[in-house]
Amino acid sequence: MNVRESVGIALDALRANKLRSFLTLVGIIIGVASVIAVMSLVEGLDRYVSTRLSDAGSDVFFVDKVGVEFDFTRITERLKRRDVTVDDAAAIARAAPHVQAAVAERSAAATVRRGDRELRRVEARGVEPGYMAVSDLPVASGRPLGETDTRTRAAVCVVGHDVAGELFGSLDPIGRDLRVGRTRFVVVGVGERKGSSFGQSQDMYVLLPLATFLRLYGRNETVTIRVKAGGQESFTQAQDEARAILRMRRHVRPGAPDDFEIVTPEMFMSLWRNLSGAIFVVIIGVSAISLLVGGIVIMNIMLVSVTERTREIGIRKALGARRRDVLAQFLIEAVTLAAAGGVAGLLFGLLLTVLIGVASPLPLYVSPLAVALGLVMSTLVGVFFGAWPAARAARQDPIDALRYE
Questions:
Q1: In this structure, are strands 117-127 and 205-209 parallel, antiparallel, or unpaired?
Q2: Which among 132, 251, 302, 324 could bridge 389 via Cys, Cβ 3.0 to 4.6 Å?
Q3: Does the reported pTM lie above 0.70?
């Protein structure tokens, strides 16, 4: 049995019947392309989310009233809790030995204007001094908000890079005015450029002193506390200390559940893994169906091929070919067909990945594992669905095969 000859026969059949070959392999192509595109997307997003969480600070956690929750009933129940307050943040910062800083923040969508230029739905954040350091958000020019700004409820702000560009153009924003809603503020700083995330700018914000923000938007809402631990090694202790301080301040009985939530970067990562895992399973299921359909089509084509080449099988056996030689020949042809579909699916999947990357803000990463998995899956489809036609060819009696018309 000549492996090269069997592969050549399969490739000749592909070239001789291009349309039939394409229709035969379309299921394999779609299945492999889907595997590669989806794995590239999920892997790219995993790396992106991990990087973003790392940039945000692996030693930073949040305290708020609701936490990470998507069940409407639970969200409704948690919204009935007591608000988290600015005083809670001050208590954590003052009494927790393993906490480096704890700052309160609140946000609201605002319209920001300067002259005839206007930006809608800009995120206005009321923040305490030290917020930019805790959030790893340094200023590119000017200064951050300070204690004096909060104490005097100063009408000053720090703007994001895109806000500065849209409203001031080539002018230096420092010392110039803008309006947040109807209130005039003086720009004292411009945040360092952070770029975009999933196509959304991270530089469309205005930071206000929290006391000024509360004067404008009211005090009767909860705040979020951003807590920075003294280091990664003390991250767990800082959470325990914050929890104990808040339970004591809020008079939570021993054994009763917390009436607030502590949110860590690992929670966001776990949430993303669960979400991406569900997406991955669904798409892989669809890809598996495509491969199954492609395998069935290959099996049917191979059965037709066995019928068309019955006399050839008889001649080969008459010339001394053994059953295993005929079996191997048709099995190699089936595998070659499936592998050709796998290669075509690989190229199509890579092209699809590039197009998604160009046409969308989604981060992509072509994983070598995805490429290998696509090719292995297509080869296994050829082996599995080519086994029966190959076995049928191998079982044929040479005399009956030679008589076949």
A1: parallel
A2: 302
A3: no
